[in-house]
């Protein structure tokens, strides 16, 4: 696999993380520090790279079992997180219980949900016998960079437009989950 192909693959895999990070940045409001941007982007990048490695090591032997339910895991996680964001957006402006993209549990859930495709890609890379270190590190670094941009962009955009960004973000997460489910059920 040529490096440009690896780069394009990494960009494609990071699009779900971009959507999540834009939403996270919008929710952060005045708490969008460099450290928080790095935290969100790092978790999303590490999960993308890590799931690629896990998928690669599982290889061909487990492909049929993983592919049977990976889309349900991603759908369920994104539906839950999106639903929570929508629910929180309808409540009064209290800070307790609001969607918090810095909460470790929420961030890990988002990391898993947005990197399920990387698991399948890892399995495919094992089939192709592609060099794992190059693939996984490129996927992780690209996802980190795109996610960092997403958090920053979401924060700047969210400050200029006073919308219910929790509601929009929740709908985006549910949309991503639904897209993953439909693709796997009807187009794979």
Q: What this model shows, in words?
A:
This protein is mostly helical and 188 residues long. It has one domain (1-84, 100-161). Helices cover 81% and strands 0% of the residues. The protein is built from eight helices and no strands. The protein has helices spanning 3-13, 15-28, 34-58, 63-67, 70-90, 104-128, 132-160, 165-186. α2 runs parallel beside α7 (132-160).
Please render the helix and strand layout as text.
Blueprint: H1 3-13, H2 15-28, H3 34-58, H4 63-67, H5 70-90, H6 104-128, H7 132-160, H8 165-186
Helix pairs in contact: 1-7, 2-3, 2-7, 2-8, 3-6, 3-7, 5-6, 5-8
GO cellular component, one term: plasma membrane
Family: Belongs to the MntP (TC 9.B.29) family.
Subcellular location: Cell inner membrane
Summarize the structure.
The protein has one domain (1-84, 100-161). Helix content is 81%, strand content 0%.
What are the defining features of this structure?
mainly alpha; 0% strand; 188 residues
Instruction: Give the oligomeric state of the chains in this entry, treating copies of one chain as homo and distinct chains as hetero.
Output: single chain
Total of domains = 1
Percent strand equals under 5%
Helix content estimate: over 70%
**From the helix content, strand content and strand pairing, which structural class follows?**
mainly alpha
Distance between the termini: 22 Å
Average pLDDT works out at 83
Tally of alpha and pi helices = 8
Order of helices and strands: HHHHHHHH
The description of the largest β-sheet is: none
Radius of gyration: 16 Å
Outline: globular
**What low-confidence regions span 5 or more consecutive residues with pLDDT below 50?**
none
Counting DSSP E segments of at least 2 residues, the number of strands comes to: 0
